[in-house]
Amino acid sequence: MASAYGEVYAEWRADPEKFWMDQAAAIDWFTKPEAAFDPSMGAYGSWFTGGITNTCHNCLDRHVSAGRGEQAAIIYDSPITGAKRTISYAEMLADVEAFAGALSDKGVAKGDRVVIYMPMVPEALVAMLACARLGAIHSVVFGGFAASELATRIEDSQAKLVVSASCGIEPGRIVAYKPLLDEAIELSAHKPEATVIVQRDEHRCELIKGRDHDYHALMQANAGRKVACTPVAATDPLYILYTSGTTGQPKGVVRDNGGHMAALHWSMNAIYGVKPGEVFWAASDIGWVVGHSYIVYAPLLHGNTTIVFEGKPVGTPDAGTFWRVIAEHDVAVLFTAPTAFRAIRKEDPQGSLIKDYDLSGFRALFLAGERADPDTIQWAERLLGVPVIDHWWQTETGWTIAGNPMGLGLLPIKHGSPAVPMPGYDVQVIDDAGHPVDAGTLGNIVVKLPLPPGCLPTLWNAEARFQDAYLAEFPGYYKTADAGYIDEDGYLFIMARTDDIINVAGHRLSTGGMEEAVSGHPDVAECAVIGIADTMKGQIPAGFIVINSGVERSEEDVEKEVVKLVREKIGPVAAFKTVMAVKRLPKTRSGKILRATMQKIADGEGWKMPATIDDPAILDEITETLSQRGIKKPDA
Ligand code: COA
Ligand code: AMP
């Protein structure tokens, strides 16, 4: 079928107001907005001002009223514990009402913040939707973060309550969450009034009397309770999701209710090509934006069945798990990060496990979160025989900036490109002075303001930082902090970040944040952390440390302690395992560490001696160290 993309994009361009009002008509409002865009509110205007709605109502009640109550809302499939459970829309609504009742008894009301620190279990979605029902603002924290990262988020959001679980389960080990939560509350200057803990049979935990409450006991006590949806403004926050910024202090990306629903609802059919009732699987984690948008909100808003998968692409139990889940639950579309496919390919290069499963209902694989390398895409295309579609977005936007919209009819796929801007996004490439560059020329990728519905209106309690990080450098534009180019056909190519963010197994991490942790070691005089290429995870962090003079312990001991420190401060998700003690760090004459040059050396990319370098000999020492450690790739 010929793609309607051009037409739809042109329709949006010609009349954005009509385009977005049409999308807003697909959701329920207590009070309909009179206009889509209001230029007078917010940093760059706001969406659906005056509209009153509720996201939980649109995810659950609406579908139950429309006769979808018996359809599966959630299929929980946990190869790591062996558990499987199907929860209908009606059951999910009952659970969410019960939990919303319990939360409101604990004093949680509209505008209050609730931190959710949970593994991939259905109770996590119940907690998110119960907050949405009450108009409370949730902030989900990924389970792979350490106590101090959790503490930062509890403190910054001033959470009234925390919902957590006794444990998460990783291959080969149980991660006891409760001690991490207790430590986080200890570390945070702000103390939540209460916690609710889901006790899991794999590892139960002690509850502190008066503060900690048992989830299952609360659910039992509140079973059958009716709790109405609290009306909220379209512009009220639905959630805060902290993401890595350029410092150790994460950025609290705020998501609103109205714009978010309109955009996500539109995306399910137009971008992913699914119809209500079909099974959609985002193999990610609710701790990341992909999980928020495409495990929870978009599929439920659209009346789909969503898979909550507690496992890994490999090792739970093997590299055929994804195919098993697709076949068993009749998944129409899978969305994951390229790294998951690199992991599967490494274990099963011939894809021999695919043959064991009936994948006839499977229509497309979507990839995002990091650059999709053409090699992996081609491998997946060959073995799966379905379109493999790269698309590009960020925590900040909450949905696709550029993609290839399956529901509108696919455009030709160009490997290495996430294709074209979605309606709502006027994507441009400009040089550092803010001038447009020619097709094919690398530059800063920016989006002309206003950002479309669903994108962040601000950062939580940090309006100045929001302006500074995204709007100040190129007035009139949102800075994506990605660099790349647009080719002659209008296809985007995302090449690199312009800041210190790295992408490790699809997880967004700040090397600046890691440097802050490393410099906390008493024996470290100075340090630099860079992201180096990794065939499986895309990038992994590597640290260089200069040890204080006079330290008598071996370099090896200090290196090991630094690894341990980052794991304690940031968490295992940082995958920070490589540290090298060096005598000196390469710097410019003004004292700036030459991280980009170090990264190019490690990756074997061509590099030029920076004109401003203070002492070129130091780069030889770095090259030597990287070679000794077997890190330096052959020069390109
Ligand atoms: N709770 C506690 N610890 C966690 C965790 C969680 N929810 N998630 C990950 N970790 C730990 C892991 O156990 C691992 O610890 P280790 O150092 O003791 O081995 C560490 O954090 C790194 O985890 P991860 O990046 O997941 O690496 P991995 O080697 O365990 O698995 C992949 C590699 C590719 C299989 C895995 O990253 C994956 O499935 N990626 C899919 C992509 C994805 O989900 N992206 C999210 C955005 S779309
Ligand atoms: P996150 O906020 O975790 O979703 O990370 C967003 C960042 O991941 C983007 O700014 C990009 O640097 C990178 N990214 C996400 N999707 C893609 C993609 N399809 N291609 C290249 N980079 C991507």
Q: Your description of this structure?
A:
With 636 residues, the protein is an alpha/beta fold. It folds into two domains: 5-311 and 391-484, Rossmann fold (3-Layer(aba) Sandwich); 505-628, 2-Layer Sandwich (GMP Synthetase, Chain A, domain 3). The chain contains 18 helices and 31 strands. A seven-stranded mixed sheet has the order 5-4-17-16-18-19-20, sandwiched between helices. A five-stranded parallel sheet has the order 7-6-8-11-12, with helices on both faces. A four-stranded antiparallel sheet has the order 23-24-25-26. α3 packs antiparallel against α4 (89-105), α4 packs across α5 (122-134) and α12 crosses α13. The mean pLDDT is 96. Bound molecules: coenzyme A and adenosine monophosphate (AMP). Adenosine monophosphate (AMP) binds at residues 243, 289, 368-372, 390-395, 418, 482, 494, 497, 503, 508.
Question: What would the keywords be for this entry?
Answer:
636 residues; alpha/beta; Rossmann fold; seven-stranded mixed sheet; five-stranded parallel sheet; globular; binds adenosine monophosphate
